[in-house]
Every structure is written in C-alpha cells, then in structure tokens.
Design a protein that fits this description.
100 residues, mainly alpha, two-stranded antiparallel sheet, 4% strand
C-alpha cells in the first residue's frame, strides 16, 4: 500500500495497492535528505574485525576472473558515472592497451 506523494494518512482516496518494489522505484529523496544521509556516513570506516572478515570471505573469489569488458561497455560506464565521453590518452588503443 502506498500513499500519494508519501503524504497524508493511510485512508481511502489517498492510497493505492502496489508492490514494495514499485513503491521503492517511486521514492525520491530531496537534496537536503541526500546531504543528511551523506553526512551521516562520511568518515565512517569498518572496524578492523569487519575488514578482516570481508577480506577472508573474498579470498578465492573467482566470479569475474578473466572477464574483459568491451570498449563500448567501459565508455558507457564512464559516461554514466562522470558525465563525459571516454577518450583514451593513447589514440587508437583502449584502456587495456589493445587496438580499437
């Protein structure tokens, strides 16, 4: 059940029946809320015991071993993350040093 604009009471006329996934897709944080959430996490680090646990769990992880992403995939990811097109420093070669 979701409220229109996440405002008001849960009452007839102000709610609709949707899945949790749909409700989460519609969620929008304000700039103030985003800044507040960021400030709460800034500077926080995992404890040494947690880092050791995560390190131990990742030992032997071979999920993407040998997988190479295509130039197009890398360029798309850079455009999405940084907002500009990927332009290799060595014209004619991709970031792995392979000819285009």
């Amino acid at each position: 059940m979701a409220r229109k604009g996440d405002k008001g009471a849960y009452e007839v006329g102000n709610v609709r029946i949707i899945t949790v996934e749909q409700n989460h897709r519609e969620m929008r944080h304000t700039k103030e809320t985003k800044a507040e959430m960021s400030a709460k996490r800034t500077g926080r680090k995992h404890k040494a015991s947690t880092r050791a646990y995560m390190s131990k769990k990742m030992k032997g992880n071979k999920n993407a071993l040998g997988h190479k992403q295509s130039f197009e995939t890398i360029a798309k990811r850079i455009k999405t993350r940084y907002g500009h097109d990927y332009q290799p420093k060595n014209a004619g070669y991709d970031i792995f040093g392979e000819p285009l």
